[in-house]
Design brief:
Layout: H1 12-20, H2 27-34, H3 40-52, H4 58-65, H5 70-80, H6 88-96, H7 103-115, H8 122-131, H9 135-148, H10 154-159, H11 165-175, H12 181-190, H13 196-205
Helix pairs in contact: 1-2, 1-3, 2-3, 3-5, 4-6, 5-7, 6-7, 7-9, 8-9, 9-11, 11-13
């Protein structure tokens, strides 16, 4: 005789998913308790739920951003990119993420800093843009620097026009926030780039003939 599925115990994953939508008794306790679960997936699910319910504190972010599990750090960066953050300690943790050994963590930290328009990261973003071994990180750094529009980033973005095609294309977009003879000259050269998408990006700016 088959048992009634309704009598089966709910898995912790299911409990966390329900708690993330404020379903079930003491959902906030369930989420907060599992932020320190020994199982990384449970910490990830708890963090997602906490973000959804607007329960995350600065200490929670600091713990997640420095988590020993790379997947948790990646998830924390994905979540914090669109969260409200006003704590300098948290921004400092994001900047430290630029030195992570995992390229996707670095990429996530770059994106989050750009989304939050954190100008305090400009110099380190320039380092990522010009010297990181992973092209994805260099491309993301160029995008973030373009969004920030800080003039200190000008040399790094111009230098990216000699990088791989995806980075060069990103640099064209980033240069739209800068002006000057050096920018016009760089765009003129890029209008003859061997990559058609780079040339198309220049054309879309409408500045190649200035």
């Amino acid at each position: 005789m088959h048992g009634d599925d309704s009598t089966l115990a709910e898995s912790i994953d299911e409990t966390l998913l329900r708690a993330g939508f404020a379903m079930g008794a003491n959902y906030s306790v369930v989420l907060r308790t599992n932020l320190q679960s020994p199982i990384p997936r449970h910490r990830i699910l708890a963090l997602r739920g906490m973000v959804r319910q607007n329960l995350v504190t600065s200490d929670d972010w600091l713990r997640a951003l420095s988590d020993g599990d790379v997947d948790v750090r990646r998830e924390a960066l994905n979540q914090i990119a669109h969260a409200l953050v006003d704590d300098e300690l948290v921004f400092a943790a994001l900047v430290r993420g630029l030195d992570d050994d995992d390229a996707l963590v670095v990429d996530g930290a770059v994106f989050a800093l750009g989304e939050h328009l954190y100008v305090g990261a400009v110099e380190k973003l320039c380092v990522i843009a010009t010297s990181h071994e992973d092209a994805r990180c260099r491309e993301s750094a160029i995008a973030a620097l373009g969004t920030l529009g800080d003039d200190r980033a000008r040399p790094a973005i111009l230098g990216a026009l000699d990088d791989k095609p995806p980075v060069r294309r990103r640099a064209i977009v980033a240069l739209s926030n800068f002006e000057g003879p050096d920018i016009d000259e760089a765009l003129t050269r890029a209008s003859e780039d061997r990559d058609w998408q780079v040339r198309a990006a220049v054309n879309q700016l409408g500045r190649d003939d200035d």
